[in-house]
Model the fold of this input.
Amino acid sequence: MEIDDLRTFVEVADAGGVTPAAQRLGVSKSMVSRRIARLEAELGVQLVARTTRGIALTEEGATFRDYAARISAEIDAARETILPAGELRGRIRVAAPLSFGPTHLAPVLSQMARRHPHLHVTSCYTDRFVDLITEGFDCAIRIGYLPDSNLVARRVGPLYAKFVASPDYVTRNGSPKTPDELLKHEALMVGTELWPVTDGDEVLNIRPQGRFKADNAVALLAAALEGLGIARLPNGLTDQHIASGALVEVMTNYPPPTAGIFVVRPPGQHPAKKVRVLTEMLIECYDTGSS
Done:
């Protein structure tokens, strides 16, 4: 019984189809189909059945999936144990935010690929919260304030932010000095979220209002530069614009509280070595107070 066949079956079961499993594994659909057929022939049972919506596990397939996943995990752990010190092999799939990932996280992933020439690195940049288990990611990098979940999270560094607006907006509308004054201004937001602000040792949550919304911080930055309102944005996106005078900081006595950069992974007893290495590299890069 081939370990690649077992791993492929687990991917098909979790992804719900041959095509998404092939994308996760980086192989052709025909290769996935051959591996499943070979495994079924060896076991003498049908593991998956095709439906109008893709594939579904048979009763035997549903039972066998957990065994196959455990065997694959044990083989991966054994391989890690006997590899030369520091060497990584296989594949790591990472989800990262679109607003922050390509500029701030991609260099770390590129460095990881350079250090480990036998490791295949696949990254997905999106501002939606991906389902790590269903979509087959080893881990995700998330920024801000994490909601409660069953995922395991490790903070790798701080994330600082500011309330900013263009000089033109401030000239036309004034600069808010307090949270109450901020509520009277146009806010550039993701949706109807609360904005936390620090008041001494306390954190207050306010609900701003605004007519411009976007699911991407880069889009909110563009709106702030156009003078459409006040945005709450990470320093990494605003520093150069503040330095050039294109943006100014507002409400400096009530700044956003420090958030964080996190690596999250599915629950399990021990993280894979590749996830541990990535986490250590991110800590080395970002746990300096400069983000």
